[in-house]
């Protein structure tokens, strides 16, 4: 009941026209912190029944919706959200706090359920050898399954937070985001979602070839992510436009270095266009 009430109050704040000015007020930060505590409590009290739902609510209401609000308003050119403004500083703090929280949660889940993820990730809970033998975990198979997947999702969220940080001036966290996504794939290789995020992170590198590869890997995964189909189609449409523009361009005399760059571009754009033609039209 307390979770539902906190979510309702946060939704009302986000519904305001000047929500971007309201979200970082102390009382609203306090409300998000309260919701975060309640969701964590719910996760560990009822992991099988409410664990996944609590995780989703926590990510969406405490972190993601605030991030989307700031990004949308920044794109719209709201004057308050500029580099070194109070609002941007609060946003940076919001992202850093999110990273700290999910790193702590990742360690806590591993510790609580005695998960052995040393072979998968480098952010592991290390037990003290002086303590001696571990106590057996009194958790069901379904609870252990939730804990493993919760670690996977924590790593995806950490990757997302690093990706959002990378969009800010003076921050270079692209490799960190990439590392978290690949570690999420190590924990649950069957889930394609991290490949979709890697595609988004790649952007238009190498004329969209890298992002296309990631989206295709996501779609081919045992558990694919629906959004990857739309992302792939968008890249194919873009490559078709680029291909037709290249064909229209005049072949004027270029220096050897410029000609080499042009040839590489033509090769990659043509390759992408060919990929789009070979794709099945079922979607």
From TrEMBL:
GO biological process: nuclear-transcribed mRNA catabolic process, nonsense-mediated decay
Domain Telomerase activating protein Est1-like N-terminal span(s) in chain numbering: 53-168
Record flagged with keyword DNA-binding: no
TM region(s), chain numbering: none
GO molecular function, one term: telomerase RNA binding
Matches recorded under InterPro entries: DNA/RNA-bd_Est1-type, Est1-like_N, Est1/Ebs1-like, TPR-like_helical_dom_sf
One Pfam family in the UniProt entry: EST1_DNA_bind
Assigned keywords, A-Z: Nonsense-mediated mRNA decay
Domain DNA/RNA-binding residues, every copy: 177-276
Source species, domain of life: Eukaryota
PANTHER family in UniProt: NONSENSE-MEDIATED MRNA DECAY FACTOR, SMG-7 SUPPRESSOR WITH MORPHOLOGICAL EFFECT ON GENITALIA PROTEIN 7
Name of the featured protein: Protein SMG5
Species this protein is from: Cuculus canorus
């Amino acid at each position: 009941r307390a979770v539902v009430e906190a979510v309702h109050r946060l939704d009302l704040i986000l519904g305001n026209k000047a929500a971007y000015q309201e979200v970082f007020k102390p009382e609203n930060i306090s409300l998000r912190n309260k919701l975060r505590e309640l969701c964590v409590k719910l996760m560990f009290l009822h992991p099988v029944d409410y664990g996944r739902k609590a995780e989703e609510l926590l990510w969406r209401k405490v972190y993601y919706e605030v991030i989307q609000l700031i990004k949308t308003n920044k794109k719209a050119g709201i004057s308050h959200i500029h580099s070194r403004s109070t609002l941007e500083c609060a946003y940076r703090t919001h992202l850093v706090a999110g990273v700290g929280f999910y790193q702590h949660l990742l360690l806590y889940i591993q510790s609580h359920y005695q998960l052995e993820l040393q072979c998968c990730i480098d952010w592991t809970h290390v037990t003290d050898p002086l303590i001696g033998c571990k106590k057996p975990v009194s958790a069901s198979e379904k609870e252990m399954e939730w804990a493993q997947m919760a670690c996977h999702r924590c790593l995806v969220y950490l990757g997302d937070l690093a990706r959002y940080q990378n969009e800010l001036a003076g921050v270079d966290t692209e490799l960190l985001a990439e590392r978290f996504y690949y570690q999420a794939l190590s924990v649950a290789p069957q889930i394609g979602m991290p490949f979709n995020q890697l595609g988004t992170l790649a952007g238009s590198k190498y004329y969209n070839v890298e992002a296309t590869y990631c989206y295709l890997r996501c779609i081919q995964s045992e558990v694919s992510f629906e959004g990857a189909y739309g992302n792939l189609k968008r890249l194919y449409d873009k490559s078709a436009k680029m291909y037709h523009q290249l064909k229209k361009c005049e072949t004027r005399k270029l220096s050897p270095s410029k000609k080499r760059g042009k040839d590489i571009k033509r090769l990659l754009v043509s390759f992408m266009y060919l990929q789009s033609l070979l794709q099945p039209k079922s979607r």
